[in-house]
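Q: I'm a student working through a structural biology exercise. My instructor gave each of us a protein and asked us to get a predicted structure, then write a short paragraph describing it. Mine is Thioredoxin family protein. I'm not confident about reading structure output yet, so if you can add a plain explanation after the tokens, that would really help. Here is the sequence I was given:
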Amino acid sequence: MQTLTEIENTLREKPAVMLYFSAPTCNVCHALKPKLVDAIETNFDAVEIVSIDISESPEIASHYSVFAIPTLLVFLDGREFLRKSRHMSVGEVVESIRRPYEIMFS
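A: Happy to help. First, here is the predicted structure for Thioredoxin family protein. I'll explain a few features afterward.
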């Protein structure tokens, strides 16, 4: 379990970060996460992936205004670039990230 301070440090130190908010009771979260992580690791090797269990860290979810799960936040250069909640496809997420990621890391 990470603290808010650790997550904020990661956002400052890493150029690309994905925060994945879920909970143990969320079946969609558990089905989506391995596919999403695999796609991100395959296509965007510089992205740091941080998983946040909102049942253990509700203050972190609150800090980032996450009120539904699963929620995915992608930060590029410390700024929120993409926010997806509930209904998302892996392909949609990958395509949303591809162009800015290629510009940053080419």
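A: Here are two points you could use in your paragraph. The helical segments are 4-13, 27-43, 58-63, 90-105. The CA atoms of residues 16 and 47 lie 5 Å apart. It's a good idea to check both against the output above yourself.
Q: Great, thank you!
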